[in-house]
Amino acid sequence: MDLLLVDDEEGIRTVLSLSLADAGYRVHTARTGEEALAVFDRVRPSLVLTDIKMPGMDGIELLERLKRRDPDVEVIMITGHGDIDLAIQSIQREASDFVTKPINDAILGIALKRARERLDMRRRLRRYTTNLEQLVAEKTRELVRAERLAAAGQAAAGMAHAIKNIAGGLEGCIFLLEQGLRQDRRTYLEQGWEMLKSNVEKIKDLSLALLDYSRPEELRPRPVDPAGPLEEVAALMRPRAAKQGVELRLEKAPDLPQALLDPEAMHRCLLNLVVNALDACAEEGAARPCSVELGVESEPGGGVRYVVRDTGPGMDTQTMDLLFTLFFSTKGGHGTGLGLAASRKIVEQHGGSLDVESEPGKGTAFFVRLPAPGARQPLEEYPTI
């Protein structure tokens, strides 16, 4: 182990150098603090043994400079009998120990042993910390792999269920077409043809929904009127609402400030929610006449809140717990089970949240909350399927 001995007295340097060399150290010497720093920069010893009182740079200043160069270096101070106050100051500045003149070999040996033990403990702690960090990183990777496998299994099961429903519909239309051809029944042919078109549409919707959900969403936020995306969705869905006999109302708070968002992505998000609301109004148990209320307003602190509320049949807590699960749908074989998951993905990539409130027999409300730009936290890449 390399050791730097610093003392302005040549006799002490000579005697201590021989004694320390006999103890197994590679000894380097310096007469002054300046010379000691030069030797330290060249050799980088783990141990330094230095006198406190020296001409020019004293031992305490040398100690401070050595610690700035290498906080882990162990420095033992050599003091006279009247220098206890200076010795205490050196301990306060993170010297590992001090010995007094005339130097007793046994006491010096104990001080050096303690210094070596501190060095060894520090090295072991650093090695343990490195190993622990590697272990945590490895276990984190394993956990991520397990979660991805679980998510993939869940997605595969959901996709299989969706495909099974479509396959069942296709089998039904094939049966009708075969019966129509065999019996020359135009009614069967027309029914089978309509079922075929419907199931092809479901396959297309499922494929597009999968592509839309799995592709990375590159948001292009810009300052816009937050009411704009909701007004566009309302205008687009009014003909369908009128055909269903559903009252579609739009309310927006006056003097809405501009919001930083991607209007196209938010349009897709809100469109999914409004389509779900209209589908809910078509279900058994919905209020008659049914209504869908759309709203947008400012949140405290500069955020934006969208509301999509329907007077449909509502949902129980068990259904709500599964609502954002991939391929879970409350629409039987008519839904892909991806719309709400895609909407939540868009909202969370904006730094916001998508919440739902529902009560059986009274309807459902979805709330999209987007924080003010300065309050948003950067998100990790959203997982894909």
SSE layout and pairing:
Layout: E1 2-6, H1 10-22, E2 26-30, H2 33-43, E3 47-51, H3 59-69, E4 74-79, H4 84-92, E5 97-100, H5 105-183, H6 186-214, E6 222-224, H7 227-244, E7 247-252, E8 259-261, H8 263-281, E9 291-298, E10 304-310, H9 317-321, H10 339-349, E11 353-359, E12 363-370
Parallel strand pairs: 1-2, 1-3, 3-4, 4-5, 7-9
Antiparallel strand pairs: 6-8, 9-10, 10-12, 11-12
What this model shows, in words?
The structure is a single chain. The chain is of the alpha/beta class and 385 residues long. 53% of the residues lie in helices and 17% in strands. It contains ten helices and twelve strands. A five-stranded parallel β-sheet has the order 2-1-3-4-5, with helices on both faces. A five-stranded mixed β-sheet has the order 7-9-10-12-11. Helix 1 (10-22) links the parallel strand 1 (2-6) and strand 2 (26-30). The model is unreliable at 378-385 (pLDDT under 50).
